[in-house]
Amino acid sequence: MSNVKALPLIETAEQSGVAPCCPPLTERPMTAGEAEVAARMFKALGDPVRLRLFSAVASHEGGEACVCDISDVGVSQPTVSHHLKKLKEAGLLTSERRGTWVYYRVEPSVLAAMGRILASASAAA
Amino acid sequence: MSNVKALPLIETAEQSGVAPCCPPLTERPMTAGEAEVAARMFKALGDPVRLRLFSAVASHEGGEACVCDISDVGVSQPTVSHHLKKLKEAGLLTSERRGTWVYYRVEPSVLAAMGRILASASAAA
């Protein structure tokens, strides 16, 4: 990881919590640093339960949801909280406490970046 | 997995090797079956080395590459082959043997499906 630390791209991602990453897949081979950032985002969606929870938040009224809103995916509430935390760590969700509950919201810039990586690739293929 | 087997979506994906999946993230919560298919694709891109290899194939001249073309990511050739196999199993690459080498090509329909899932989400957010 020592060589990755030197990349400004990674520092920005670490500072902001979101990643302004990466080039379209068809443009050029990704660098090690870019792949590190992008793979972290894809990996966060690489679990079926996590993906269902993420889509539950994304499709919820107003674009946000609390644990109380999305407990119908067949796992316990601690498990739901665990996965939401993982999605937040990956920069895909933001959260805000209001009263008793923590509300989660999709981070649009990160999703847009992931979509751009893939959409360009498929358009050019 | 027994309840997943009953979904036509999964059967189609298994038959064709590519997944005509899934609804945009903002549309409605994904079902268990949809999330199973989509998570498999995202997980395949959730490894930095695999993602670099995938972008190397996607950005290579003519949209295809053999192991001999993309050996500069700092891992051994057997490791490259292993990751290419994983990407193929996930339906993201197709392969064809021509002479000595196996040539890999990006599967555009799968990438388009992944892009659609994410792009719609970010546009609506």
Automatic annotation (TrEMBL), chains A, B:
Keywords: DNA-binding, Transcription, Transcription regulation. CDD domains: HTH_ARSR (cd00090). The keyword Transcription regulation applies. It comes from the Bacteria. PROSITE patterns: HTH_ARSR_2. Pfam families: HTH_5. Residues 30-125 form the HTH arsR-type domain. The keyword Transcription regulation applies. NCBIfam families: HTH_metalloreg (NF033788). This is Winged helix-turn-helix transcriptional regulator. It comes from Streptomyces jumonjinensis.
